[in-house]
Amino acid sequence: MKRRTWLPGLLICVIAASAVAANLPDPWRAWRYSRSFPPGKAGERLELLLPEEVLQHSENHLDDLRVVDDRGAEVPYVIVADRALASGAVRKQVTLREKSFVRGQFTQIILDTGPQPAFHNRAALETPATEFMHWVQVDASDDALAWRILRQRAPISRVTENNITSNQTIRYSDTNARYLRLRVLGTSEQFPVTGAAVWFMPETREPAKTRIHAVLVPDPSVAPALTRWNAELGSSDLRVIEIVFESAQREFFRAVRVFRSEDSKEWEFVSGGQIYRFYVGDKVEEDLRVPVFPGAPARYWRVEIMNKNDAPLVDVRANLRRLSLAVLMIPEAGRTYRLLYGNARAGRPEYDLAKTLPSNMTQVLDPQDLAFGLEEATSNYTDPRPFSERHPNLLWLALGVAVILLAYSAMRSLRSAPAKSSGSDLD
């Protein structure tokens, strides 16, 4: 008698499948997935970060999220993200006092912010130049005689190859000095400047971000003048807000372009900027992030570094980041909870909780060091779509049968018509 060695394996598969499946109450069977909440303190805030799989498997841009307790009752919740934005910029009137040029060294611009001492930390140059990447040295003075360095090198750029990437904003440390001296370094010709602006931008807390797990795959088909990566996110609901780079190269200054697509064939330019690293003595100055505004949804992403005539960066990598999101709810004593998602028919819920909680709880991310359970498929899932949407092929089949029957009926009518007319003639 043959030993049925496949039975233990089948049993293990069945047990494993049941371990990652959940049986939901009847009102919630139209949700494909769920996760268990960890225990929380009754009556207190429970805030948990949303895993990436929730964003990928949500079928309605997170509008289908529901929280239910062990009785099957719906529980109010709020989606929390950092919204701690800075107050508006305070602009200062400036007068352009000097434009001068030392060939091969710098183009110099001196700005007068006026006699009233007010702080500023941003400047921008207006220029008709269309293709440039330069460093700018920023100095400040109270009398236009004695100067102190605010920033050794700050980047400005405008790249018009295929898509425009532009950044003329210069950041420097807070100062209330009346005079500002900007030196555009290394210019073989005078850098054209038609105007300038100066303002104060209050500091703000950076919103929390989460790295997207999708891998940016290098494209070996492009020429060395370009470094390109492509990524497929598996969903259009992952909103990329930033590209972060890494490289072992000591110093560099490169332009970056970012594209998105829904089919990986037609690409749309969405953002650009520059990345750089240089040393001032032993101190490193770098910015390896390129923001994507606003957070753009798309399934396919492409990131490019424009190397021009330089060799590609050494050991360079890039990754995508999204805004961190959390679910906040208030648990009751003795109850357990599940997060449900994956229902394209579910609309956005409205709860009083979002209006009764203080804004510092709903607009500033502060998750606990806890996590949702593993994703579980709904074992008793019922598709909420109408029969016609669930079985479109049957409708086409029925339509085809109806057409055939009508054609058959018409042919029979045509064949029988002459016979009847000939019979009447004989009479």
Helix content: 10-25%
How do the strands of the widest beta sheet line up side by side?
1-29-2-28-4-5
Any idea what the shape is?
A: extended
CATH level-two architecture of the largest domain: Sandwich
Low-confidence stretches: 10-19, 420-427
Mean pLDDT: 86
- In terms of DSSP E residues, the strand content is 35-45%
* CATH class term of the largest domain: Mainly Beta
Cα-atom radius of gyration: 32 Å
In CATH, the homologous superfamily of the largest domain goes by the name: Galactose-binding domain-like
Query: What is the total tally of β strands?
Result: 29
Remind me, CATH topology of the largest domain? Jelly Rolls
Total DSSP helices: 6
Number of domain units:
3
What is the SS-derived class?
A: alpha+beta
Instruction: Please give the largest β-sheet.
Output: 6 strands, mixed
Distance between the termini: 84 Å
Any overview of this molecule?
The chain is an alpha+beta fold. The protein has three domains: 22-81 and 325-378, no CATH class; 90-200, Galactose-binding domain-like (Jelly Rolls, Sandwich); 209-323, Galactose-binding domain-like (Jelly Rolls, Sandwich), CATH 2.60.120. The protein is built from six helices and 29 strands. The protein has helices at 6-19, 52-57, 353-356, 359-362, 387-390, 392-426; strands at residues 21-22, 33-36, 46-49, 66-69, 74-75, 78-80, 90-92, 95-102, 106-112, 120-126, 132-141, 148-159, 165-167, 169-175, 179-185, 195-200, 209-211, 217-218, 226-232, 239-246, 252-261, 268-280, 283-287, 289-297, 300-306, 317-323, 326-329, 337-341, 376-378. The chain has a six-stranded mixed beta sheet. The chain has a six-stranded antiparallel beta sheet with strand order 8-9-15-11-12-13, with no helix packed on it. The chain has a six-stranded antiparallel beta sheet with strand order 18-19-25-21-22-23, with no helix packed on it. A hairpin with a 2-residue loop joins strand 22 and strand 23. The longest helix has 35 residues, at 392-426. The chain is extended and about 100 Å long.
